[in-house]
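FIELD: query
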Amino acid sequence: HEYLEEVKEDFIKYQNLMDGTVMIAPESVPGIYTAIARYGIDWWCYLFHDNRDLALKLLDAILDYELCRIDSFADTKITPVYYSSDPIATNNSLLWSEGFITDIILPRTKKIVDKWKSYGYYHILYFEGAKLPILDKIIPIWDVDAIDPVEPEAGITVKEVRERYPDITICQPVDSEKLLMFGTEEEVVKASKKAIEDSEGIGIIIGASSEIHPKMPYKNALAMYEAAHSYDLSTLYR
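FIELD: result
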């Protein structure tokens, strides 16, 4: 889009075609995601090492644009939900040092969170990978409504997240790397139902831990959604 206002105009156009389905506001990326997408993670790391001040100015310029975009878009009558995302971790470990995440990434993300929250939005925090050490730091002090995704392939279970953060909504807990790609429909249904049960039947959004893409068996994706839609929650409270 050439102008910020066009984002909102297009969103409203597509939202009106969704027959009541709630769309999430366009993703907010506070800086680091955009920087490494544009220049590559290697080149950005070289820049940070060789010219830290310039690297931080780049992140802040991206952040300033995003804050302006939020001001231009925000309207809870259109949608009450947004999500922010940062590249925090791989399946096995944090992607950056804990100090870099705490000092460089999170303060900028917090400004995004506070901006959306000032308009009354619900916040989905999108961190992929083995992110629990970082979540433990911010969940008690940030106004986070949901965590996305909860990835079995990163060693994180729905039950563990429910126990650690009982008031948080859990998003996208069905493994997309192996189960949805190569499993059977029966295995997908079983995993989807188990996620609901491990969440205690509250505060969970069933979905793939990553994308539903053209190479994924569509019957597996449908099985996941149908398992969620047809689940009788009353069976958990008898």
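FIELD: remark
Residues 149-238 form one domain.
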